[in-house]
Amino acid sequence: MKTETLFVCQECGKQFPKWMGKCQGCGAWNSVVETKITREISQAKPLVDADGGIVLPITDISSEPQQKLTLGLGELNRVLGGGLVRRSVVLVAGDPGIGKSTLLMQALANLSARGLKTLYVSGEESAEQLRLRADRLGISSPDFLILIENRLEPLVDKLEQVQPAVIVIDSIQSFSCQDVESHPGSVSQVREVAGRVIQRIKASSSSCLIVGHVTKEGAIAGPKMLEHMVDTVVYFEGDRGHPFRILRAVKNRFGPISEIGVFQMHEFGLEEVTNPSELFLSERPEAVSGSVVTGLMEGSRPILTEIQALVTGPVLGQGRRTCIGVESPRLALLLAVMEKRLGLNLGDHDVFVNAVGGIRATEPAADLAVFASLLSSVVDRPIRAGSLVIGEVGLSGEIRRVSRCADRINEAVRLGFRRILLPVSDVSGLRSQADVSIIGLQRVTDLRDALFD
Ligand code: TYD
Ligand code: MG
Question: Is the CB of 100 under 6 A from ligand 1?
């Protein structure tokens, strides 16, 4: 055994042999802290699986798609790219109280009901608390095993003994490893614990889901490095005041990262929402200015969302800009186009834009809807009932084509939208449908006539 004294940046996790006031890794000030780490001398184990260390022709590797373990919740499988890959490690991050433990317990419940041995390791809650939640969720399988532990070494021994197919570790911040002399949740602990767990999983036949809390700034507490260490990172988001929850992949070594999963929190656990458009539009006010519906593509699925804008003023000095679910550079661009091409200067007005339901309307295809909602609020006129607005807005005020137009329109027609405002260049590729009027627009100056009664 060898004890080393290292200096670890609490922001980015980079290690240095000596103390320094400014981290050379991320540039943060006063973030480097002295930490003692004890290591076994023969610690040269690589962080790779059984195939590591051998030079092979790439054609000798089997290219069969990996078997994925489906997790019972379709929306969770969708985000993971079909299911859980064996020997993979997934980090599930989110605010405290958002429903991470509930989500993962439900996932394990389904696996254990199918006869797979699952282990739920909690370093945060007591066995009684877990039992209460399990009762609430209707979990009754004897293959759903629990372990109350927050030390790494006994956990590793138990994994060896029990050999579960799927393990949940709730949460990485509650665990500590003897060899690191700092408190649980510190960067050095998180990094060491995660590193050893990942090493163990790669050498086993299990898969692991790790819960990670996020800090107030929205980053996963602990080193950014944690995201690089695991195979998949998903964020569980939502507003605690609302029942909607959105699961979003930000990294996935085994699938796309564009898919989202939508859930609703009920009294007896999370229910998947297979029809998010209906949910996002369910509380939409009728005939109110500033409200426009657009069609977004979230991965392979079109989702209709309401965009709301509120423009007030004039105010003294520079107006405020607040956006939720829309990027502020995008809003600035649209306001500049509005000033130049429509002669509407909102510099001294407060502007608020919101993509309803916690969705992110960051696709360029949402531009025209944001633009239309601003215009509708400025002139204080509701847009015509039953209209869907899609299109990207260019700097010279031109309306540019969007991808997968037909999918977006079909979703809108299914939900009763009968007037589709879209880029003129997208019109020719569309099949005409009975009682649906397709209105092609070339420039933002064409919008005003098409938008209002
Ligand atoms: P939890 O899964 O404990 O959140 P996290 O692990 O992310 O901290 O769930 C938190 C909230 O969800 C809690 O306030 C209670 C609520 N909840 C329900 O509304 N219904 C349920 O069935 C369960 C289990 C929890
Ligand atoms: Mg929890």
Answer: yes
